[in-house]
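User: Can you help me understand a structure? I only have the sequence.
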Amino acid sequence: MRMDTNTQKKKLPDRPFYLPQGETTSSRIITEAKESLGNRTGLQAVVTKRPCTPRDATRSLFGASSSRTPENRPPSSFSLGSRHFDGSDTSRPASRGRLQPINHTPTFSTLSEEKPKIPSEEEIESGLLPPKPPSDPNKVQRGKATRTRLQQSTSVESSLSSEVKSRVDTSPSDGKNVDESVRRVHSGPKERTTIPVEERGEGDGREMPHRAPSSASVRSPPQSAESRAGSGGTKRTSSAGSTGRGGSAGRREEETAEEALFFSQNIIPLLERMTEASSKKDSKRLGQVTEELYSLLQKENLLGRNCKQRTTILKSIFKLLDVDDSRIQLKLARLILALKVTGTNLLSACKLVFKISRNEKNDPEFLKGDILDVLMDTLKSTDPFNASEALVFCIGSLKLLTGNSTIVKQLVKKDCIESLALLLNSINKTIREGSEPTTQIGNILIQATAALRNLADAGSSRERLLGCQATESLCLIIDSFTSDGDLMLNISRIFSKVTLHTDCCTALADYPTSYRSFVSVLQKHQHKSDVVVRVSFVLGNMTAKNEVARLRLFQEAGSFDILLTLFRFYLEQDVKNQGKEVKKEVTEDGSTVNKTEDVLIKVIRVIANLSINENVGPVICSNYQCVDYLLKVLETKDVSSSEELVLNTVATINNLSFYNTKTSAITTHQVRVLEALLKLVLANNMEAMVEACRVFANLTRQRVVRDFLTEQKIDRMLVTMLDSGNREVVYISCGVLINFMVDEEKRPMLKQEHGIRKLVEVLRDFSKTDWELASLVCQILWNYSGKITSSNDCFGQQESQDLMELLMELLDRDSALDLSFKEDEEMTDYFEETWTEQFCPVAEQLLQRIETHQSDLEPLDNPSGS
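Assistant: Let's start by predicting it. Here is the structure, written out as tokens:
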């Protein structure tokens, strides 16, 4: 078992593997025991650190390392003020489709004509002609005068008070007094005039003929206003020109006298106070009144598109956006977004929020009120294909805010992960239906995946990501946007975080196209080290514990070829850089990373994990190119400066040397392998020595290797290592010594180096907590005593006596299995199994041999037979 850190190596001798570190469960104890007592000289999964990327201190949309050109991405810096907002925002959202023209050809009349032809009622009902014009020409003139008055109004006080007052003072029962400026119709080109800008649909620059609705939709007064509950005033058309979306012809909504009165008495004063505070540059007062207005609209259910004077309110707010205080700007932006603007205004509002979120000092302001809820609502209600740029800035703001751990927790609680996953799913669905992936959609996805990357650090994020099938959606995004290097980097960063956990690895490994997706990314971005290192890390995680993943990845077309291609390219890059000063990347914890080496570490790890599979391992073992690259790493790198790279390489060679096939490239190059490993044995690095000895344990099955290592005095070094308090070092030494004791001429060395006494001590110290290690000690002594004639001569008199007594004690069930955790039935069963199946068979034979050769005297005849 590999140890991850120096701290673990120091603690290991002091803490038996079965003792928990703090509170733990019995299942974890057994898992650790099995890992510790597993086949430690055989195959092993390689562990490595997760690649770390420094946070973008600039808080920008795409980061300094983005490969996007300026023309293919919105800018992160821009100027923004009231002039960027369109005061004509109305209740009708922008429409992508053009209105169908009225099927009517007007008759052009001359100036001398007295009056236009009045259509019949049948023509009006059929919709072939415009409705009947008013019989009184004065009404038309009054409508023109009213329209002129509206267009000339420039201040909040004059325009709002005069318009509302005219409607409130009108008798509800007198139908003739209804504002004719709205109900006026046009019978010909001479009477058709351009609709005032207030009456146009937002984002629609076309001039459209005004049509009076045949039946107006009725809006009830705010339900929460007790003073108006249950009352039903006569409905009047709003002079703001709001156009409803519910009608089939885009009909305008009407406003009751009660609603107009409420607007006049409650909302207008607030707007006037806001204007006054802005003119006096009283930011504190402006912020307070803005909060009052927001609370009032929220209480009366007038947010969104429910308020018929919405356009008037927005026009007033837009004029206040030149304030310098970012806190006030955020309050105003929240109000604008809560009123459900679209088109240019939505884009400008999202830009404003993004601009504020770029400054880390403003983060606390986003935790006040419900601005995060408004942003989340904007995210969920904005169409990525119709308002893509606005969505880029909206999600971009969330991405920047997820750099704050407190805000991350809040966003996770508000289901931000699920909302982003729904967005990904919506984009995937649209693309599957035939839409082409566009640069703008790619820009949205970059912001969304960057936000998910940060949200993945939250405590419950893993369960949420699995619950909303985000991993599957991300794999589909990979398939559609493989060429987008920035997007692939973000997705690989998400997976590099979540695949640290077994459940996420299993979910990803079970997804059928995940292997193809990752192989495609590696093939497309071979020279983009940031992407390669993370995708390789993800594949290494997937194959670390999942046997099915190892086989399926290896069977994926082109998978092993691309791994070798990457191995060769980055190895050549590393060799070229040797002797040069290489710029290292500083990670979040302050350490430095050689990016080329880091890629090699991750790629080699995938190869090591793949080789654990009994079907894949022999194939890789026979790949001469792969073995050659591994040996070049050992020959060109030093363990003191490239420890993780060297150790991972040796671990991979160890896995490959496990397969003793005729076509093994390890066997063919065994001298080269041994020379590279000897350099590690002589290095002042205990873990490097252990890893090298693991390979020796596999290679010493061949006599030629044992002879070579004996000449290098490696056998004596192994005996010395028995004194180590490190359980793993002792275990590996015993594994190699078993093979050395096969050769009769090498056996005397064990006694000469006091190995017998050391082995007895190992048996006494570790046996009851490591029956597999105890079994190895007995196997060494069994091989060593193959030509025994006298136990005392073979082992030594004291050693023979101590060994016999110790074996008798360890073979006694009650004594051997008297463990401190015997109340744990599962743990007791495991130790009893290893004691019975691994230790007892060889220990019993060894004890019998020692007892049989205990004395040089001839045995006495049986007295009963005399």
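Now, to help you interpret it: The chain has 41 helices and four strands. Confidence is low (pLDDT under 50) at residues 1-39, 90-116, 121-133, 135-252. Let me know which part you'd like to focus on.
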